[in-house]
Amino acid sequence: MSSRVHSERAQFVRSSRRFRLHPAQAVVTGFGIAVAAGTILLMLPISKVGPGGASFIQALFTSTSAVCVTGLTVVDTATFWTPLGQVVILALIQLGGLGIMIFASLIGLVLARKLSVRARLNTAAEAKAVGFDDVRGLVRGIVVISFAIEGATFLLLFLRFLSAYGYTVGEAAWYGVFHAVSSFNNAGFALYSDNLIGFAQDPFICLPICGAIILGGLGFPVIVQLRKEFRRPLHWSMNTKLVLWGTAVLLIGGTAFIALLEWNNARTLGEMDPWGRVLTAFFQSVQTRTAGFNSVDIGALHDETWLGMDVLMFIGAGPAGTAGGIKVTTFAVLFFIMMTELRGEGAVNIFGKRLSRAVHRQAITVVLIAVAAVVAGAALLMLLTGESLDRALFETVSAFATVGLSTGITASLSAPAQLVLVVLMFLGRLGPLTLGSAIALRDRRILYEYPKERPAVG
User: Distance (Å, rounded) from C-alpha 104 to C-alpha 115?
Assistant: First the structure.
């Protein structure tokens, strides 16, 4: 009798292992559940202004955009949703920014005071942690840092709204907290019908939002290391150095690029004073790091500016943060690989350290999948809507890189075209490698190698 019980127990264990989710699959599933829950809540009549509830596509698009911290919208956030609907959007932004697995692990820490190995693996997959022995501290650090930056941004915005715009204490608090959370999580949702165009030349609104966006885009590993070793740059990791240098170069270069092309454009920067033009150019450069706020009409920018912003959005910001894109580290790795090949050197050396060859393959894989997704998405938008290439490409890159900037065509797209953007936002938030590993149930280990051969390249 005991042997039979033992056999049944062993069979149950084997079957439970068969249906256990891979950590990457758990991340994808968690994000999917959050999107579905947000869609249901936003479809409720109490979430929408006026009679009836939001349509399925309106709720699905908004929920996906919020969870994936993108910011693209098919309805006006300020007037279409009730305060309850806006609270749902805010909660989805916070949940998507922190990460479903990190959020779940936090709850586990509070309730059980411990993490299982499975929970550690899931959290490490979401946070891009190198190991998972320190996940307990990692989760606490992420939450503390996130709320601290959001709290500081909220305080600055609250005081400005209260003192300069005649808001009541309640209004200033609500607008302050919504835009603080939206900015740090690189979401780009705003409670104004014209987004932030009304504050284009107000540095006390624009600069705190930019600061929160930049910090959120650095990535949690970089912020944690800077907090611990800010005065010891020699101890910084290769990842931290790449993110900081890449961020500085892209922000300065993006600001100069936008300012030069739009300086005399009467529909964007042309009517502002010189300081306002520089501030607005900097603000829009920051938004391409995947935030999505706009202080000028994006549809009025020159075509050449759109193309440059496409590149900046595609690169994105740092890994393991709230931003999207292929990540600045991926772009930097490919740049150094190219420079190594041009110099005829063997190993890729960055900041005095040799780059792992596995990172070569990962960077190339990420970029090729991202290019394929963007090209396919742009082609589908053009086929489904008849939009021009420049607008379709801008919209597609913005969705995949989870930016949220738009030339103004999102709301007028057909339902199938909007679903294309939904898929791109989901894919872009999770990352090509995470989504790909979620589909693959296990790694394939080949116990043999083929002989080497070199084809002609170039």
Answer: 10
Q: What confidence tens digit (pLDDT) does each residue in 351-409 have?
A: 988 988 878 888 888 899 999 999 999 999 999 999 999 999 999 999 999 999 999 99
Q: Among 19, 413, 86, 166, which Cα is nearest to 399's?
A: 413
**360-365: long-range contacts (C-beta < 8 A, 24 or more apart)?**
360/333, 362/433, 363/330, 363/333, 363/334, 363/337, 364/334, 365/432, 365/433
- CA 76 – CA 49 distance, rounded (Å): 11
For residues 362 and 427, what is the distance between their CA atoms, to the nearest angstrom? 17
First to last CA, the chain: 70
Helix (H, G, I), strand (E, B) or coil at 191: coil
Q: What is the pLDDT of residues 363-373, one digit of tens each?
A: 888 899 999 99
- Dist. CA 209–CA 30, nearest whole Å: 28
Continuous segment of H or E residues that includes residue 237: none
Residue at token pair 């062993």: 10
Query: 55, 75, 51: which is closest to 65 by C-alpha?
Result: 75
Report the distance separating Cα 437 and Cα 24, nearest Å.
6
SS3 label, residue 269: coil
Classify residue 291 by burial, with Cβ atoms within 10 Å: 0-12, 13-18, 19+.
buried
**DSSP SS3 for 257:** helix
Give CA–CA dist 126/321, Å, rounded: 10
pTM for this prediction: 0.88
Q: Which residue has the tokens 């809540």?
A: 41
Q: Domain limits of the chain?
A: 20-439
Angstrom distance (rounded) from CA 131 to CA 109: 18
For residue 13 the two structure tokens come to 């264990």
